[in-house]
Batch of 3 targets.
Target 1
Amino acid sequence: MSNEKELKDIAIALISQYGEDAEAVAMLRAAEYAAELNNEEWLKWEKVVSFINTIDQSPHLDG
């Protein structure tokens, strides 16, 4: 499983690239893995969604 820093970096990259749509992009990716029954990747992307929400609620944390 990916480490926490890697997942935060993915979240920040998605926010940089997609702005307000970053959460939707991450949720779509999570849904793709869930549909494939790939639990490890699904959980990874669920955590990315969580980090995006945290960063959105506390913009000063996004580095």
Target 2
Amino acid sequence: MVTDQRALLARFDRIGRSLENIALVSLLGLMMVLAVGQIVLREIFNSGIIWADELLKLAVLWLAMIAAIAACRENRHIRIDALSHLLPTHFIRVTRVIVDLFAAAVCCAIAWQTYRYLQLEIEFQDTVLIDTPAWIAHAIVPLAFVLTGYRFVIGALKQAFGTDEEIDAGWVP
């Protein structure tokens, strides 16, 4: 039963990794093509796409949010770990579990507040990119914080219940 659950979670993890990687590469490619296109249009044709600059700003937001999820997935987020040089291995694992759970709670709180902000955007009918509802463009923020919080919880579970070999091999509970 436990191995079935681990296999299922590992499969979801692989799907999530693939979707994150596809989104990151696609967004970066879109940004490069759009930015270079804008430069060419402005310099050579004295023209440009009206909504391109705003789309680039939104693409940077989306790229940053998805990259934060991916960084948390790879345990490459910013971590101040001065204690890891002073404490024994067992205590390091305990502190990392606590820190990851705290980070997950903070991510969930931020997700909730950004969701509330989206509700205001819906209520006031804010728009971006000429006539697109702003909440659609900004929906990545609460979603990214929920997924980052999920990744922190997974990291805490790995630290709490995994063996050292499983943690080093990237075991997913």
Target 3
Amino acid sequence: MGRGHCGQDIWWHGKLRGCGYRITASREAILEAFMRSADRHLSAEDIYISVHNANPGIGLTTVYRTLEILVDMGMVFKLDFGDGRARYELATAAGQANHHHHLVCTRCKRIIDYTDFIDDEVELLKRTEKGLSEKYKFDITNHLIQFYGVCDTCKTAK
């Protein structure tokens, strides 16, 4: 298995191989861009800019294709914050607990990741998912929660 910058096993190598995908330089560069920007919601263009200087052979089409694969595998979430531009976020990496939800300001488009009340939400969601799974015979594998509204800065800037 590959080694990360700190000598740790790179968790995505096993995941890619396990799903029948090769570990290519472009896939590694794109995943490393996520690791460097773990606290941001990246567009395909953001990722392209991040990887293209060091890897000029990686085109925007390759970025989009790779993102599709990573979303299908559940390694990356595709997010829609209502601004007409898809954003992507690395799913929880092996051994990390970074589950969070989003508050999205409909005026300035600011995105706030929050972890407050996650335990309460998880309990409610477990009951909801169980009920939905039973009623519709549907296996739920994940969820995303986004609340839309107006942030404090926009409220006071009237």
